[in-house]
Design goal:
Length: 487
């Protein structure tokens, strides 16, 4: 298949066709508001045919990149986060049809990797390595079923390693192994949990003593299943009864003791759902942009914050962040970090700094990370203007560091009537004077090695009072929980 094609009729291929990682220091003169980030290595990791990144992993303090290519996927590794070496035994593990690597997972002292073929030309495979350099296949092709043309997310549960398959012929399956070598089919998952239209088990995650599995189903809508023992499974959510446009569950993750999952939706935009122990809540489709039709396969939690990306083939993949389960999501940087060809950001990991990988069919994958120095930066670009006598609110946003944060104005001042919330970074109140007010904000985190970040802002307050609400003062984002679920 061509990873350059974006075909809505092949929905599963779209979400899988992506991820970018390659690093060059991003010039300070850049005007795309991404000055906190640096690109590492050359585009495509030196090969423009490296067009997709589905996963990256920090294992034993070494960064691993799973790269998708039309002529066979590759594995790259880096010990310093700057230079990358191809450690694949061969492109596509000797099968050019295996064009994508979906997941890395550590199990039993080894690193496992799952590979897929979206053209049904060969069977999917699982490989492992004791050192990240030498790789051997575990199990047979398709793990015994030749119609399994791909293997996706892996997860360790009850001392066994589980992996989900893509099977467009009979329906998806889940396999598990206790020793890393011998794989067994979980019978009740065969045939797409009894629905052959569940062609893929995209996501696996553990939470509260359960193993959760999310499917891809372009006919009826995705399903969410769970099991307490890995053998017996119960249906949790069925989108055929809620919104069949949510055709896939691309990711399941836990954050601050809450369970979340992200969908694929080409009509209203992808959705993030969360469970607070009583109700399901969900956000606005695409976080306000319907072109965000799928969210990261691998969100990353750093301290009290969670980071994830989107697939957006129109304006470029986006990086999003929240610092608590009930806080608003905020976008970091521009779409595609200024390059519309960076059309998906699925892969993220943390190795001292946050790393993100973009898929790029034009010049090859790109890998970015927070610039060296403090890993905590204030990401708010500018403050919306206010009006004298009218309510004003703005929330200062931050990346990195450890929550809780402490905010302060260390130079200059806000206009009379406005205050800074020292805990939340919110500027609020009713300005009682007009003009341009320059001030410096400082934020400190609560980590053992305390970090500090500063930034200068100019807040413009125009004169006069209006009865109209200034919509420009709103911050783009959504509060996920608590809400009442659609179901």
């Amino acid at each position: 298949m061509s990873l350059k094609e974006v075909n809505i009729n092949n929905l599963l291929k779209i979400i899988l066709a992506v991820f970018i990682l390659s690093f060059i220091i991003y010039p300070d003169s850049n005007t795309h508001a991404n000055s906190y980030w640096q690109q590492v290595s050359t585009n495509g990791l030196g090969d423009a045919t490296n067009t997709a990144i589905f996963t990256m992993e920090n294992w034993q303090d070494v960064l691993y990149i799973g790269v998708g290519r039309n002529t066979g996927a590759r594995i790259y590794r880096s010990t310093n986060g700057n230079t990358f070496t191809n450690v694949s035994p061969a492109d596509g593990f000797g099968h050019p049809e295996l064009e994508g690597i979906y997941d890395f997972t550590a199990f039993d002292g080894q690193l496992f990797v799952s590979a897929f073929d979206e053209d049904d030309a060969t069977s999917g495979e699982v490989w492992r390595s004791p050192d990240g350099i030498t790789w051997t296949q575990t199990g047979v092709d398709g793990l015994g079923n030749a119609n399994n043309d791909g293997f996706y997310k892996m997860k360790v549960f009850n001392n066994q390693l589980y992996v989900g398959s893509r099977n467009p012929t009979e329906g998806s399956e889940i396999y598990r192994t206790a020793d890393g070598a011998n794989w067994n089919l979980v019978p009740l998952t065969a045939g797409g949990f009894g629905d052959a239209n569940n062609v893929g088990v995209w996501s696996l995650e553990t939470d509260g003593g359960f193993l959760y599995a999310g499917t891809f189903n372009a006919i009826n809508g995705a399903q969410l299943w769970r099991s307490a023992d890995g053998t017996n499974w119960n249906l949790v959510l069925d989108f055929s009864l809620i919104d069949g446009n949510n055709v896939g569950i691309s990711t399941i993750y836990t954050y601050s003791n809450n369970l979340y999952f992200g969908t694929m939706n080409f009509i209203g935009g992808a959705e993030i759902w969360g469970w607070d122990g009583a109700n399901w809540g969900w956000d606005v489709g695409g976080l306000g942009d319907v072109n965000n039709n799928c969210f990261s396969i691998h969100p990353v939690t750093v301290g009290s914050s969670v980071y994830f990306g989107s697939r957006n083939a129109i304006t470029g993949g986006e990086l999003w962040w929240a610092n608590s389960p009930n806080s608003q999501y905020s976008q970091i940087g521009d779409d595609g970090f200024g390059d519309v060809n960076n059309w998906a950001l699925y892969a993220l990991t943390f190795k001292g700094y946050l790393y993100v990988g973009f898929s790029n069919n034009n010049s090859g994958v790109e890998i970015w990370r927070l610039r060296s120095g403090s890993s905590m930066v204030i990401t708010t670009k500018i403050l919306a203007q206010g009006q004298e006598g009218s309510n004003y609110t703005a929330i200062l946003e931050i990346v990195g560091g450890t929550n809780p944060y402490t905010w302060a104005i260390v130079s200059g001042s806000l206009p009379k009537g406005l205050s800074l919330n020292n805990s939340t970074g919110e500027i609020f109140g009713i300005p009682e004077e007009s003009g341009d007010f320059e001030f410096v904000v400082e934020v400190q985190d609560s980590g053992k090695k305390q970090q500090t970040a500063r930034k200068t802002f100019i807040l413009k307050i125009i004169a006069g009072v209006s009865d109209n609400t200034d919509e420009s003062n709103s911050i783009r984002g959504i509060t996920i929980l608590p809400q009442t679920g659609k179901n």
